[in-house]
């Protein structure tokens, strides 16, 4: 099929390249000419495992192209995916500016098109958005009726940054919210070669499935951090051992044919310094704001956000607990990305940690294997800190080291490495890196580890 994808961010580019890799002819649209030129040279504007290689491959096969011409892309395709950003507004609702603008442009392109065309919303939007915002705009500017000359679907993505290509190529499910049967059947043909469960439902349900999915995972993370914070007060407690015992409950981790099934959901019962990224914080806020519009107070989701907002600062409090006043102290912060294997710093715990350290008059030094704060947009704007180029350099002679992102490279941080490079050997673990290792030779504090001799806590 000939497919157009509007948007070349994490969702749009991965979707476009992924669809091209299975034989569809894809054109990705973006308003940024420099970005388009870069993509057409085989250079991905985002860091995503295996994306560069796959992009080069589909370009070489002439199955993929990027352009700034939305009108042409829509008119020369059978299906258009909308994959533009829906950032948070100050009131936690989502900003539909890009969605509305693109819907208008697609509608205008459809006005002169005779053939049937399917428009698919891939962007994460609140329930009723596709039906009450996108569809009316398409009808208004195309002067056509949905269900006759064009169809509408809502097809949420479940891609995890860092493994997005693998998630796209091996989906655990495909959710198709359909305006009518023809719309759903047309989209289903796009995914005909994928061997997975296909859920066909209403537009509103599809939107709600996405929000519910992310809200559940975010809730598990905040729940695990709540338990970690309680465990911190108990002598000798280790929250990681606690969750190991909990995870063996067969309702969470079933035993089938005498073998334990290790379910992926347990990976979200993982205490630390909180969740970040472009999805969980934004989506939970948006769902809470949506509920408020409907005159319902989402108490649980509000608590999830409150716990997550406070959690990164636990690392700063642990540092103060050990070395007191942070004024003029040299503090290393390891990791700027919100999670490993991505360069995305949106809502990263590192941002609030750095801000708090600076407010305490500490001298902040950072390191991340991928992220350069100078090219990370406005996220680190007006923050004065020193970014270093190596793991060795960032911890050299520092008063304390805070681990914020669990990059694999940080496994080099053995007690011997820390002792030979750090000033006070004070290590504040925000990701449970050393919770099950012998670290008796260094000063170690970790989230969810109660006061005991072993952890020098």
UniProtKB/TrEMBL annotation:
Residues 332-436 form the UDP-glucose/GDP-mannose dehydrogenase C-terminal domain. Its EC number is 1.1.1.22. Pathway: Nucleotide-sugar biosynthesis; UDP-alpha-D-glucuronate biosynthesis; UDP-alpha-D-glucuronate from UDP-alpha-D-glucose: step 1/1. InterPro entries: 6-PGluconate_DH-like_C_sf, NAD(P)-bd_dom_sf, UDP-Glc/GDP-Man, UDP-Glc/GDP-Man_DH_C, UDP-Glc/GDP-Man_DH_C_sf, UDP-Glc/GDP-Man_DH_dimer, UDP-Glc/GDP-Man_DH_N, UDPglc_DH_bac. Keywords: NAD, Oxidoreductase. Belongs to the UDP-glucose/GDP-mannose dehydrogenase family. PANTHER family: UDP-GLUCOSE 6-DEHYDROGENASE TUAD (PTHR43750:SF3). This is UDP-glucose 6-dehydrogenase. It comes from Candidatus Staskawiczbacteria bacterium RIFCSPHIGHO2_02_FULL_33_16.
